[in-house]
């Protein structure tokens, strides 16, 4: 840390000098922020990219810096935005998103920690409201084009050494503006910034298969998840303890255990990883099969793993990634005072959307020393193995039942109202809707009416 002209500055390889206020320094020195120094930003990606040892700590500083610059440009509350951005990741478990398992939610943990902290100029509620994406400050940190995403793409690209996460940050900063919709301020991008936002889309699209969803990283992450689940079953620690542990604590505990978790940790240490025996690409699965798989909770996955393991005669792990959210495609572009969705005015954005969906796939992994033993069984039913085990699982969806009744529903608000009449919450509605659209069970059609967009929904049929 450098002290210059009575201001404290942190040197950063991405943003160079990051100045910090007196209160920000106090927060940086808390145990909750210092803990992030020992939590890797990209989980076990360092097994593929050896330099990917950067942490949540420097990402938090970088997000704070970008968020503050955007807040100043948009006349938002700069101090509130910076403080919230600095704290937005304090709830992460060891190895970041890898261990968001068994109900662990890093955002809820962060809010609980914030309630116990002391602030000079803001209440706990004001900071948590921003963390909940309320107000202009909340949209700056987490939105369609946000500080969090811009920092991690730049930072992860730099530390992995790949050339795919580069974005035109200065151009985005010059093009970002606010506009009013239904009495609320929202964030948009001027026409001159279209190519800069496209660079964000391209960066994310290329970073996911190359870094975030690299096959080897996914296998290692799956092994670590199962090791922690075994440790939880053996009561070595509780799920809530992950909020206070860092990577070092966790690795030490797993290495010094005596159960299955120890074996898996040893394999990770020796980089003796499971091997992928089957891959199901998006197009290999029917919409129904996709829905069944992404709707499984952890217990369902474990039970399916047990059935596959019994059939093959060895431990089998199943890797079902979450479906892509693709928030950037909803960015509002302002041209001659008129508003458009990015994928409406950008052929590139429109073409990337289906391509990004098709990056999703499901992996089945087995121990490397058991491949010869299971070769014969795999050759008999390799492509149909998983399909056979899930073919009798029914599709359960309230929204699908509603669509069957109405055939077509005009307007997302109308759909939400009907869903609420069926007992669904708003959160449950959006979660289920996005999954159905992703799987191909429901068609989403966007109609522009005046200055707003209407989302219409209908049933997609499949064989």
Automatic annotation (TrEMBL):
<dbReference type="GO" id="GO:0006203">
    <property type="term" value="P:dGTP catabolic process"/>
</dbReference>
<keyword id="KW-0378">Hydrolase</keyword>
<feature type="domain" description="HD">
    <location>
        <begin position="56"/>
        <end position="153"/>
    </location>
</feature>
<dbReference type="Pfam" id="PF01966">
    <property type="entry name" value="HD"/>
</dbReference>
<dbReference type="Pfam" id="PF19276">
    <property type="entry name" value="HD_assoc_2"/>
</dbReference>
<dbReference type="InterPro" id="IPR050135">
    <property type="entry name" value="dGTPase-like"/>
</dbReference>
<dbReference type="GO" id="GO:0008832">
    <property type="term" value="F:dGTPase activity"/>
</dbReference>
<dbReference type="InterPro" id="IPR003607">
    <property type="entry name" value="HD/PDEase_dom"/>
</dbReference>
<protein>
    <submittedName>
        <fullName>Metal dependent phosphohydrolase</fullName>
    </submittedName>
</protein>
<dbReference type="InterPro" id="IPR006674">
    <property type="entry name" value="HD_domain"/>
</dbReference>
<dbReference type="InterPro" id="IPR045509">
    <property type="entry name" value="HD_assoc_2"/>
</dbReference>
<dbReference type="InterPro" id="IPR006675">
    <property type="entry name" value="HDIG_dom"/>
</dbReference>
């Amino acid at each position: 840390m450098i002290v210059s002209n009575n201001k404290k500055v942190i040197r950063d390889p991405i943003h160079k000098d990051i100045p910090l206020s007196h209160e920000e320094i106090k927060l940086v020195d808390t145990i909750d922020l210092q803990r992030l120094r020992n939590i890797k930003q990209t989980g076990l990606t360092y097994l593929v990219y050896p330099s990917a040892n950067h942490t949540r700590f420097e990402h938090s500083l970088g997000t704070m810096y970008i968020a503050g610059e955007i807040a100043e440009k948009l006349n938002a509350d700069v101090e509130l935005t910076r403080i919230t951005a600095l704290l937005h990741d304090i709830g992460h478990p060891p190895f970041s998103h890898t261990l968001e398992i068994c109900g662990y939610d890093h955002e809820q943990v962060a809010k609980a920690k914030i309630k116990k902290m002391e602030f000079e100029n803001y209440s706990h509620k004001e900071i948590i409201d921003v963390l909940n994406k309320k107000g202009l400050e909340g949209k700056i940190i987490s939105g369609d084009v946000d500080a969090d995403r811009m920092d991690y793409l730049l930072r992860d690209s730099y530390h992995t050494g790949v050339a795919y996460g580069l974005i035109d940050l200065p151009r985005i900063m010059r093009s970002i503006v606010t506009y009013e919709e239904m009495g609320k301020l929202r964030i948009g991008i001027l026409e001159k910034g279209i190519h800069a936002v496209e660079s964000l889309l391209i960066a994310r699209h290329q970073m996911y298969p190359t870094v975030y969803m690299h096959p080897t990283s996914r296998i290692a992450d799956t092994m670590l998840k199962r090791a922690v689940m075994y440790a939880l079953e053996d009561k070595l620690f509780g799920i809530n303890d992950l909020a206070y542990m860092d990577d070092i604590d966790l690795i030490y505990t797993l290495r010094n255990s005596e159960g299955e978790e120890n074996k898996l940790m040893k394999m990770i240490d020796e980089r003796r990883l499971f091997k992928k025996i089957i891959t199901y690409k998006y197009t290999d699965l029917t919409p129904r099969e996709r829905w069944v798989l992404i709707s499984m909770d952890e217990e369902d996955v474990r039970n399916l793993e047990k059935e596959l393991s019994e059939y093959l005669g060895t431990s089998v792990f199943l890797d079902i990634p979450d479906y892509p959210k693709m928030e950037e495609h909803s960015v509002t572009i302002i041209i001659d005072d008129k508003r458009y969705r990015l994928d409406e005015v950008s052929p590139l954005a429109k073409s990337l959307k289906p391509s990004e969906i098709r990056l999703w796939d499901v992996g089945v992994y087995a121990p490397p020393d058991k491949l010869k033993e299971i070769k014969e069984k795999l050759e008999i039913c390799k492509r149909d193995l998983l399909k056979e085990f899930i073919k009798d699982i029914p599709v359960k969806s309230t929204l699908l039942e509603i669509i069957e009744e109405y055939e077509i529903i005009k307007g997302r608000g109308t759909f939400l109202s009907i869903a609420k009449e069926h007992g669904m919450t708003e959160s449950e509605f959006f979660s289920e809707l996005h999954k159905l659209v992703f799987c191909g069970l429901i068609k989403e059609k966007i109609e522009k009416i005046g200055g707003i967009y209407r989302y219409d929904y209908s049933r997609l049929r499949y064989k």
